Amino acid sequence: MDEYYIYIVECSDGSLYTGYAADVKERVKKHNAGLGAKYTRHRIPVTLRYQESFATKSEAMKREIAIKKLSRKQKMLLIGDE
């Protein structure tokens, strides 16, 4: 059974980026190599702050969209920083 994840990384400028991946560890490595999302390319290094797992890619993508709609304060509460 495959698992999919959503994750939140904190960029070097303090901003937060949310994405989904089948392998979060490898995805964070790609971000830090400058091969990840366009948003993170000039904000490296990034640090993994949060992740959730899902049974399907569809569930993970729906959760990613929901998290992206949250305010920064709500995201910080989610990752346990406020």
Automatic annotation (TrEMBL):
InterPro entries: GIY-YIG_endonuc, GIY-YIG_endonuc_sf, UPF0213_domain
Domain GIY-YIG, chain residue ranges per copy: 2-78
Pfam families attached to this UniProt entry: GIY-YIG
PANTHER family membership: UPF0213 PROTEIN YHBQ
Similarity comment: family membership: Belongs to the UPF0213 family.
Protein name, as recorded: GIY-YIG nuclease family protein
Biological source species: Corticicoccus populi
Top-level taxonomy: Bacteria, Bacillati, Bacillota, Bacilli, Bacillales
